[in-house]
Amino acid sequence: MTKKIAIIGAGPAGLTAAYLLGKAKQDVVVFEKDPHYVGGISRTETYKGYSFDIGGHRFFSKSKEVEDFWTEILSDEMLERPRSSRIYYNHKFFAYPLAAFEALRKLGIIQSALCVLSYLKAKIFPVKDPTNFEDWVVNQFGRRLFNIFFKTYTEKVWGIPCNEISADWAAQRIKGLSLSSAIWNALFKPSAKDSDKDKIIKTLIDSFRYPKKGPGMMWERCVEKSEALGVKIEMNTGIKEIHLADGKWSVKTSNGDTLGGFDYVLSSAPMRELVASTYPKFPEKAFKASQDLKYRDFITVVLICKDEDAFTDNWIYIHDPNVKVGRIQNFKSWSPYMVPDQSMACYGLEYFCFEGDGMWTSSNETLIALAKKEIEEIGLTKQSAVVDGYVVRQPKAYPVYDHSYKANVEAVREALKGYPGLYLVGRNGMHKYNNQDHSMMTAMLAAKNIIPGNELYDLWNVNEDAEYHEGGMRGAEETEKVAERLVPVSIKN
Question: Residue ranges of the alpha helices (H) in 212-256?
Answer without folding.
Answer: 215-228
